[in-house]
What does this fold into?
Amino acid sequence: MKPNLPPVLILAVALPILAGCASSRMLDLRAVAPVQGDVQAGARKIELCSACHGKNGSSPVPAFANIGGQKIDYLYWELVEYQRGANPDSPMTAILRSLNVSDQDLRDLSAYYAAQAPAPSSGDPAAFAQGQMLYRQGDPARGIVPCQGCHGTAADGRVDGDASRYLAYPALRGQHEQYLARRLTEFRDKTETLMSSNDHIMHGVAHNLDDEAIRQLAGWLQAATP
Ligand code: HEC
Ligand code: HEC
It folds into this structure.
C-alpha cells in the first residue's frame, strides 16, 4: 500500500516540520533504529501500569489510552517524551519521573504491550460514514489529508513495508474514541508540547480538522477497525 498523498498536501505537512526541527530540543524521529525489549522482563514490570491501562493494555477507562497491540517503537518514544516532561500535567509524567524508571524498563514495557492483542472494536460503523471517507480519502477542499497513507489501510500503523520513517507512527485501531478525539484536539490546538518531529507531522495534519471531523474520525476508528 503506497501512501497516496497529493504532493501539495505533503508539502503543507512537511514545511512546518522542517522549521520545527531547527529547534535544539526537538526529538528527531525521522530515522531511528528499531526498538528492542524483553517481553518477559516487561511482564514483570507492569504492576503499576495495569491499574490504569489494564493487564493486557486494554484500559477500562475511555480517557486512558489502550496500549495493547500498539507498535513498540511508538510506545517507547511516547514514554521517552513523557520522561522528558513533554506533558507536565499527565499522570504519566509523574510516574515515569518519580520511579527511577530506566531506559531498559521503557524498552521492556514497550515490548510487553506491543506483544498483547489490541482491544476489539465497538460501536456502529454506519453511524460514522463520514469518518471512514475522511480516513481513506481525506477532503482536499478542506485541506484534510487521508489518514491511511501514514496509519495504514487497516489503521494498524503498517505502511509500505514499514520503512524506517514510519517505525514510530502509531496504530489507531483498538483505541478508545474518547482518547482519540482528545489527542486530535490536542494536536490541532497545540495544547500539548510538540516535542518530536512526529508530533509536528501530526500537528500539520490536524490543524485543518474541525470538531465534527474529529468526532466522525474517532467514532469510526473505534467502531470499524479490528
Ligand atoms: C494513573 C493512571 C496511569 C498509570 C498508573 C499509567 N498510565 Fe499510561 N497513561 C495514562 C493516561 C491518562 C494516558 C493518556 C495520555 C495522557 O493523559 O498523557 C496514558 C498514556 C500512556 C501512553 C501513551 C499512549 C499513546 O497512545 O500515546 C503510554 C505508552 C503509556 N501510558 C504507558 C504506561 C506505562 C508503561 C505505565 C506503567 C509504567 C503507565 N502508562 C501507567 C494513565 C496512566
Ligand atoms: C503525514 C503522516 C500522517 C498523516 C497523514 C496522519 N497522521 Fe496521525 N500521526 C502521525 C504521526 C507521525 C503520529 C505520532 C505523533 C507522536 O509521536 O505523538 C500520529 C499520531 C496520531 C494520533 C495519536 C495516537 C495515539 O495513540 O495517541 C492520532 C489519534 C492520529 N495520529 C490520528 C490521525 C488521523 C485521524 C489522521 C487523518 C485525518 C491522521 N492521523 C493522519 C502521522 C500522520
